[in-house]
Every structure is written in C-alpha cells, then in structure tokens.
Write a structure and sequence with these properties.
This protein has 631 residues and is α/β, with parallel strands linked by helices. 59% of the residues lie in helices and 10% in strands. It has helices at residues 13-26, 29-32, 38-42, 53-78, 90-97, 107-138, 140-144, 152-166, 171-199, 210-225, 227-230, 237-242, 244-247, 249-277, 285-288, 295-326, 349-366, 369-375, 378-398, 403-425, 433-462, 467-476, 500-509, 559-564, 595-607, 611-614; strands at 336-337, 346-347, 482-491, 511-523, 535-539, 544-551, 576-586, 622-630.
Amino acid sequence: MADPIHSKTEPNGRYLIALSVAALGVVFGDIGTSPLYAVREAFGEHYGLALTEANVLGVLSLIFWSLVVVISLKYLTLVMRADNHGEGGIMALTALVMPSKLRRGHWRYLAVMLGLFGASLLYGDGMITPAISVLSAVEGLEVAAPRLEPFVIPVTVGILLALFLFQSRGTQRVGGLFGPVTLVWFSAIALLGLAQIVRNPYVLTALNPYHAVHFFTANGATGFWVLGSVFLVVTGGEALYADMGHFGRTPIRLTWFLVVLPALLLNYFGQGALLLANPAAVENPFYLMVPGWATYPMIALATAATIIASQAVISGSFSLTRQAMRLGFLPRMTVVQTSSQEIGQVYIPTINWILMFATVGLVLGFRSSSRLAAAYGVGVTTDMVFTTLLFAVVAWSLWKWPRWAVVLLTLGLLGVDLSFWAANIVKVPQGGWFPLVVGAVMLVVMTTWHQGRALLSSVLQKDAFPLERFLETLAASKNPPVRVPGTAVYLTRNADVVPPALLSNLRYNRAVHENVIVVSVETEEIPRVLGSLRAEVRALDLGFTRVVLHYGFMEHPNVPVALYDITELDLDPDDTYFVLGREIVLPEGKLGMPRWREQLFAVLQRNALPATAFFDLPPAQTFEVGHLVRL
C-alpha cells in the first residue's frame, strides 16, 4: 500500500478565522465553563479547607499552573503533534501504535488495550459533562431567586433534550451558531474577573508557584485532595484533542492562546479576588461576581455556554465512534457526514440517543452539580494517564526521540497526571464508579467485537475456496453454469477466495453473471487514502475481476462510487447488481471465547448496520444471501 496523504492543509485567511470562531463553539465549551463550579468546589464543605488568604492564593496558583502544564504544554504543544494525518483523540493515537496483527503478550498489545480503555472512558465523560455543565448554569436561578429552585431540574432536562435533538444539524452548523455566543461568554467572564482584579490586584501574586507549594505544605493531605476539584479546570483537555479532526490544530492553538486562556485566568483570579474581599461569596463565587442587574442575563449566557460545553464531548464521541468502527472495534452504525469541507464532522444517531438518555438519567439521579462533581474526574484523569503513556510510545517508537528525553518528559507529565488521578480516585464511592463502569462495559464490547470478528474470519477461512482454483474448475467443467447477462458485484472479506454468496447462488441457481467483480474493502490504520490509491484491480479469467478498495479509518466507504470511478471496469449503473452474504451467527461454544462473550458477539452481529447501508449499496439492485455460521 502506497503512502497516504494528509486530508487537508492548515487553513489561513478568512477560513482560519471562521474555523477559529467555530472551534470556540465546539472545542472549548467544556473547559470554558469550568469557572462556574471549579473554585466553588475547591472550597466546598467536603474538604474542610479554611478560606484564608494563603489558601485562596494557593488554589489560584494550582489552577494557573494546571492550565499551563496540562493544556498549554501537554495537549496544545506536545500531544497534538501526535495526530494521525490530521485526526486527534486517543483512538487515533492508539491507531498510531497498533500493529497490523494484535498478539497477546506483545508490548504493543498492552498499549492498544490502554488506548481502548481510555477511549471507552471518554463515553462516560460524554455523559457526565453535559449534565454537570448545564445543571451548574441553571442553578444560578437559586442565587437570583431561591423560589425558583423547583424549576432547576425540569429546565435542565428540557435544555439537554433540545441539545441532543439539535445534533443532527451537524458540527459545522452547531459551531457556527454557538461560536459567536461563546465569544461573548469568554468576553463576559474576562470582564467580570478583571473588575474584581482591579479592586484587589494583590491576587495576581498567585502566579508565583511558591503559593502552590506552600498550599501543600500547609494543608497536608487536605491540600492534596483539593486537587480533585482543581482538576475540574482542565477536564476539557481530552475533548479538545479528540475534536482536532473537526478544525485542525492551528485554529485550536490560536483560539486557546488569544481568547480562551486569558479569559479563564482573568475569571479565576477575579473569583479569588472576590473571596479575599468577601469570604461569604464562597457559596457561589462566579454568580456573586455579577452585578445584580446582570444576574438573569448572565444565567442565560451561562446556560448557552454550558450547552456549548456539552457539544465538545458529544462531537468528540461521534469522532471516537467512527474511528473505532473503521478500526474494527465496534459494529457498523449509521454515520451521517455533516460537512462537505471537513471530513471529521459527523453525526451518529445511535451514540447521540445513548448519550441523551444517560445524561438525562444522571441529572435526575444526582440532582445537583456538586454531587455530579463527585462523579466527574475519575474517568478523565485515568484517560489522561493513558494518553501520556501512548504519547511516550509514539515519541519513542515512531518519532525516534532520544530515550532519555522520552523518559524525562513522560515522568514529568505522569507526575502531574497521577497526582490528579490519586486525588480523584477517592471519589469512586460518591459517584466516580459511573465512568469506570461505562468504560469497562465499552471495553468489553470493543474487545469482544474485535476478537469475535477475527475468530469468525478464521472459521470462514477454513471453508474458503481459492478464487483462481475455482475459475480453473469452472473452466474445466463439462456442465458449466448458465452465464446471465449483466454484472454482479460480490462483497467479501477476502477477494482471493470465492464469496460464500457466490457459491450459494451457483449451488441453488446453477447460474453465474457474465461479468463478476469480487470486491473486498480494507481499512488502513490511517485516516484517509489518496483517491488514486483507492483501488487495486486485477482482471481474471472467465469475466471475473478482483478489486480491493482501501479506505482510511476516518472515511466512509461508498463502494458503488468507488467502482464506477474505475475506468477499467466501465460499469453501467443500470446493469450492475450487488450481492453480499450476511452471516447469521449461532454460538455453540466453539469460537474460543467464554460463552457469554460469544452470546454478546452474536447480539452485536445481529444488530450491526446492514452492509447494504454501510457501503451505500443501492437497495433496488442489492441481494443479500444468508449464511448460517455455527460457532
């Protein structure tokens, strides 16, 4: 297979500006709404942290250096270099280290498993983030008018339902609509924070890392556990990386350093200045910074911003799912391409509805953002640890960085990641179990599907009949089958063997089309493949042709379009028919997996999107031939 190329060059000019504004509405929504609850949770009653000047400065110093080290250094500077031809996210990172064949016991197998578990954990994040973000904004109603408290949950649920119903419009439209709103949000929180800093500029001394060090030495174990809430300021890092394929690294980096980071720091330090002047504001320092006349408009703006925050992880979940499907770790699902310019922008209805029901369930179950904060962080910190490890593998094995540099850099980043992880792991009994359970379930599904498909292929391969030997037998037959006019396209996993559907058709109908094209679709471990390298065509005897189509794991395989583009075939769309086999799996304990996993694989196989829809085959010209496989 020849080398692929990148999907796109880095944008510039007006297109760069448009993408940067849209990125505000998709990529930075999650991390941009953390000021609503992060400082409040750091001084929450569950920690028992005294509201002193030293502690306020210490927390602010931790927030500042967390944003610098985790987001600016780790993700924006280092991890985003590890893109897979423009695509980001832990699944794309996993694809970089995944060998052509996974073998248990090999160190790369362990790396892939870490990547899969990290990807699985992001689904839990995709459920919790919309719930905690929107709920924390709507809770501003309690500050403005305590009598409105009974309406907080119903309003939150209504907003979330509207958000998920809007997803089918596509990331570009969502970002185009939300980007300007997010720009207003960042401008507003920056001004709110600046007004407080002007009144008490002493708070800026928290930029000195001495205050973070002193915070730990003075508070001991309590100071360490507070890291669990400080971590809330960087929880959008993984979604930021996963959404890189939607907009590219340049718009994301530009927007972060020019807009997002300055606005966040001004607001966090503004909340700190308010707490130094009025410790009673710890009840809700964000909303208590707002002048009384602006409370309701700010609640509306915050609600809009938190809706946008949810978009980052939702769109990231869509990208993650498509990558997992194309790499063979999830069954086929309907994927809707929502942009003609950005191939990374997709909508997956199945994932959208799963996230919607889970998110609404979390709101109804936990009923407050403070309780949800206890569930938030465990999955994301675990995922961040895995990202650092996979990045180290890429830097060492692919980029050939000096080993000493990789070790030092990895140890430094792991020191930060593991500190956050240890501070969050104590949240497991209070709700942190939820993302871990979701991650474990998704990991079982992914590994079961991947292993089941591999074992199923090996079972089918045992009964496979080489295509060229079949043609020799057909040519030597004294009673050859009837040749039917037209062209039949048979889709199969392996174009070197006779498709089971072709054998079934020959056995029962004693007929073969005049022209037969045996097609297999192969997914490469890269996002996209050059159009000129899409197809391998080989003409065989007796009107048979073998075609292998190559697609990247971020591409949608439209088989008819690919075949019609092959000039050697000269296909007539009105005289071409598509035939494919559909395996009906009957688990009998012979597959080599535990019986319950065989049953799970059979369920996944039955409910996978039919190949007809997945490969965009024309329904009126497609025939499916069932094939019972006993496993």
